[in-house]
Amino acid sequence: MANEVLRCDGVTVRFGGLVAVDNVSFTIEEGTVFGLLGPNGAGKSTLFNSVTGVVRASEGRVELFGADVTSLPAHSRMRSGVARTFQLGGLIRDFTVLENVVLGIDHKARIEGNRLASVKSKQVLEEARQILIDLQLGDYADYEAGAIGSGTQRAVEVARCVAAGAKLILLDEPGVGLTPPDREFLKNLVKRLADHGTSVLITDHDTDLVLGAAERVLALDQGSVLMVGSADEVKSDKRVIDAYLGTTEEGTE
Prior knowledge:
The protein is α/β, with parallel strands linked by helices and 253 residues long. Helix content is 37%, strand content 25%. The strands form 2 sheets. Strands 6-7-8-3-9-10 form a 6-stranded mixed beta sheet, sandwiched between helices. The chain has a 4-stranded antiparallel beta sheet with strand order 2-1-4-5, with helices on one face. 38% of the residues are buried. Residues 247-253 have low confidence and may be disordered.
């Protein structure tokens, strides 16, 4: 059996009298892609935040890599090997793609208590360039980040997470504003991450992106679990169709 990288047991998040996430449980195994679906207000972002420690669970338990992190702050969870991308990108636009990935390696070194002699040392540059090659981004290494397309920028953000040593990457709406070819590239990139042993938790309003990338999917509705299953099981489940995906037959209410 593969190792668990994330386990949420009965996670509930309340904001005053509002229950944003209600008794949610799921697990993510090493080297897998796990999808999160739900309409606006379903609790997806709050669940993401409870995993990363931006918000604390009111009830339940969060484990990362077998350790209980429920009471730990966000920076402590990041040190364990978790990284997250956001809808608004975080690349330094006048740095090259390679330099942006080097920053991930520098971040990892600082967390581990080491200091790089130079962020442009030959060894570090070679490591960063190899990460880009592995993720099929090598041709962009010497481009300024601000000069490449939105889809490639999103992929470079993921590459920087890999460079930082992330074993679990959370992708929050990575498909926003991307063209269909860019979304297809992103979907395949996520799958390559899993093939190399990195786990991914992804949520996006583009259901085809999530269902096409993820092996297992959790569907949320009003903060509660609607179902957890394979991508095929989720997209064919009547409850999910009624709540979020829409009808599959023309003219059906």
